[in-house]
Amino acid sequence: RLPTHVTLKEVGPRDGLQNEATHIATADKVQLVNLLSQTGLSYIEVTSFVHPKWIPQLADAVEVLQEIKRHKDITYAALVPNMHGLERALQADVDEVNVFMSASESHNQNNINKTIDATFPILEEVVIGAKAANKTVRGYISTVIGCPYEGYIEPEKVLYVTDKLLAMGVDEISLGDTIGVAVPTQVERLLETLLKRYPAEHFAMHFHDTRGTALANIMQSMEMGITKFDSALGGLGGCPYAKGASGNVATEDLLYLLDGMDIHTGIDLQKMLEAAQFIEQIVGKALPSKQMAILRNE
Ligand code: HMG
Ligand code: MG
C-alpha cells in the first residue's frame, strides 16, 4: 500500500530562511544550496522573488540563483508572487516558477494583500509568462486545513482554489498546512475530496511541524497515494505572515522514516546532516530536528 519511491522537495533555503531573523550572507546561502545539491536531492526551492520589504532576508534572490553551482539533474525553483517577481526570476534563470495563495480568505489577504478572487488573474499572468519562457509552474495553496484567523478550513475551499490553479496550467499543487495544525484524519478528508477529482500525481504535501504531527500526516498521505513531500533541512522554516507557524518537517527526520521503511528517495542522510550542521552554525542556534539533536548529544 505504501509507495516504493518518494520525491522530497527541499524548501529550506526559501521557507526556512524567509523566517530567520539573523541576517544570512549571500555567500552562505549559496554554500547551503551547493551542499544540498550534493545530497541526491532532485529539487531545491532556492529563494523567493517577493517584495524585499516583506521578506528582507531573501532580497538577494537574483544573486543567489546566479551564484549557485547548478547540477543538471536538479530543479532550482523559487517563489514568484506576480509579474514583477517573474521578471527578476527569469533574469536569474530559475528552472521552475512557484506561485502561491491561500485557501482561506483572511490568510490570503494578510499574506499577499489581495482577496482570493483578485489573486487568480495575477497568478494566471505569471503562469502564462512562465510557460512562454518554457518554465514549469508549481502552485502552493496555504492554510489547507487550518488558518490562523479562521480556524478549520473545509476541503471544498481547497478544491475551489485547486480547480482554478490547475485550469490555469499549473503543473503541480503543493498543499500547505501552513501553521502545522493538521492531524491524519483531516488530511484523509482533504485528500478524499481532491482525489475524487484529480490523480495523486498532481499533488505534493507541505507540512509544518508546529505540533509534531507532520510525520503522521505524511504517513497518511502516502497511504492515499501521494509521493511528493516538501521538507526543510534541520526543520527550519515558517511563514512570517501566519502567526504561530514554525518549521517545516525536517528533511533528515523524514529521511530516517523513509529509509527505515525502504522507501527510496535517492538522498544521502549523512550528507543532508552535513548541510544541516552547516546552516545550524550559520544561524547560530539549535535547529529543531530530532536527528540534529541526536548529533549534538553524541
Ligand atoms: P502589494 O504591496 O499588494 O503589491 O504586495 P503591489 O502590486 O500593489 O505593488 C506595490 C509596490 O511593490 C510597487 O512598487 C511594486 O513595484 C512593488 P512602487 O510602485 O510602489 O514603488 N512590488 C515588488 N517589488 C519587488 N518584487 C516583487 C514586487 N511586487 C510588487 N515581486 C505582494 C503584493 C504579493 C508583492 C506582497 O504582498 C508580498 O511580497 N508578499 C509576500 C508574502 C510572503 O512572501 N509570504 C511568505 C511566502 S508564502 C509561504 O511561506 C507559504 C508556503 O510555504 C506554503 C505553506 O506553508 O502554506 C509557500
Ligand atoms: Mg511553508
Shape: globular
Structure annotation, total helices: 12
* Percent of residues in beta strands: 15-25%
Rounded to the nearest angstrom, the radius of gyration is 17 Å
Textual characterization of the structure:
This protein is an alpha/beta fold and about 300 residues long. About 45% of the residues lie in helices and about 15% in strands. The protein is built from twelve helices and ten strands. It has helices at about 10-20, 25-35, 60-65, 85-90, 105-110, 115-130, 155-170, 185-195, 215-225, 250-260, 270-285, 290-295; strands at about 5-10, 45-50, 75-80, 95-100, 135-140, 145, 150, 170-175, 205, 230. It has an eight-stranded parallel β-sheet. A two-stranded antiparallel sheet has the order 6-7. Helix 4 links the parallel strand 3 and strand 4. Helix 8 packs parallel to helix 9. The radius of gyration is 17 Å and the shape is globular. The protein starts with 6 loop residues before the first strand and ends with a helix. The mean pLDDT is about 95. The protein binds 3-hydroxy-3-methylglutaryl-coenzyme A (HMG) and magnesium ion. The site of magnesium ion has 6 residues, from loops. InterPro entries: Aldolase_TIM, HMGL, PYR_CT. Belongs to the HMG-CoA lyase family. GO terms for molecular function: lyase activity. Keywords: Lyase, Metal-binding. This is Hydroxymethylglutaryl-CoA lyase YngG.
